[in-house]
Write a structure and sequence with these properties.
The structure is a single chain. With 454 residues, the protein is an alpha/beta fold. The protein folds into two domains: 11-153, DNAb Helicase, Chain A (Orthogonal Bundle); 175-445, Rossmann fold (3-Layer(aba) Sandwich), CATH 3.40.50.300. 48% of the residues lie in helices and 12% in strands. It contains 16 helices and nine strands. It has helices at residues 11-28, 30-34, 46-60, 67-76, 85-91, 102-129, 136-153, 162-178, 191-197, 216-230, 244-256, 270-288, 301-315, 337-355, 387-391, 408-413; strands at 205-210, 234-239, 292-295, 317-323, 359-364, 394-400, 417-425, 432-438, 443-445. Strands 3-2-4-5-1-6-7-8-9 form a nine-stranded mixed β-sheet, sandwiched between helices. Helix 1 packs across helix 6 (102-129) and helix 11 packs across helix 12 (270-288). The chain is elongated.
Amino acid sequence: MSDTPQVPANLEAERWVLGGIMTAGLREKGLDRVAPILSAGDFYPFKHQTIYAAMLELARQGEDPDLITLVNQLRRGQQIEGVGGEKYVAGLVDGVPRVTGIEGWARIVRRHSLRRQVAAAAEGIALAAMMDDRDPEEVIEAGLGELVRLSKAATDRAFPDNADLVKRVIADAEARELEPDGILGWRSGIVGLDRALQGIQGGELGLVCGGRGEGKSAMVLQIAQNVVATAPGRVVYFTLEMKPEILTERRLSGEAGVSVRSLWKYRYSPDERAQRWARIAKAEPVIARPELVTCSSARTVGHMRARARQIQAEHGLSLVVVDYLQLVRPAQAKQRRNEEVAEVARDLKDLAMDLNVPVVAACQLNRGPASRKDGRPAMTDIADSDEPGKACDWAVLIHRLDLTQPTPERREEMKGQVDLIIGKHRNGWASDVRVRFLGAVTQYIDAPEVEITT
């Protein structure tokens, strides 16, 4: 017996699918039931690919792909001999079980097709890895991209059932009525923002946009912290700008209510020292919990997807945070910067949809607001590309009111006041939310009352 593995294929299932389509007729709509699942390339022998493609062409022309019309179509295309002749085509209908099982046979064909594609991708990765002129990271990146494509393709292609969709919508409406504030999804910890967004929902891409040093990282970190405290799964935080230690420092500062600067000081009075360390000791076990996973090594969406899938499979996943979007590398370098950012934005939206979790990304603004008298940012100010604004489901633009005042006195008066501008909300409406930014602990609050130890 040969130890060589055979090519994954189930020719019997393929024949049953093709024969079932021919015998189903207009009433049972065999091709209509199979087309959402299979493409011509999913069949293994070239002759089966050709026959199925001819069936799809007949359907496009509005004709029933029965035996007679199919043979005529193959003859017109001078393909009849290439598929084994009329005798082979007619033989496909022999021994076909009940057509009611045609979707099941199609899924068997689809699974074997995916196995062949995975095997081909693995072989391609192995061959590329053996080439001296290929950088290992480049090979890994290309391999991850191909595997991600196959992972997307592995999902069921069938259209969702309308009855199930209606049940889900009604269930959401009933659940919303049970919530005191009518909000579903995860909360940001900022009441006004949660009301405006109506919760952070699975499958959505949200952007937190700001200029340099305006607090976009602080906001996405605060969202991550709040989801960690309230959601059952884990939160993965991809930090491409800050070291994990700096990120943890900010988390500890916010949880303890002590300023980041005080963590650097080494001279305190005995009372100050005792108070400070008491707060830090209380915050430490909260920050040390494993629910928030910090990752600084994932530089592409492909790497992020692999890490997020692993966490989702092992622990459950509630939220993905990316800090920040313009620092994410595309799968392959492009000639134009705007094309790279556009690809990253679309891939992040795909990530949210594929994992059915929200993805919240910090996003850099250009210097457009500085050219306006009021300094108010707009969606057109997103740096490098307008695609993030198109791909996202909602976007928050940070407007630091104190930074745009004309006089020192006015800047001091407006210190810490921020407008969170909802520049886009696919499932709601645009609005402004006034909050305060506490720079000492890098947090946003709804109310001014907070006790901070400096």
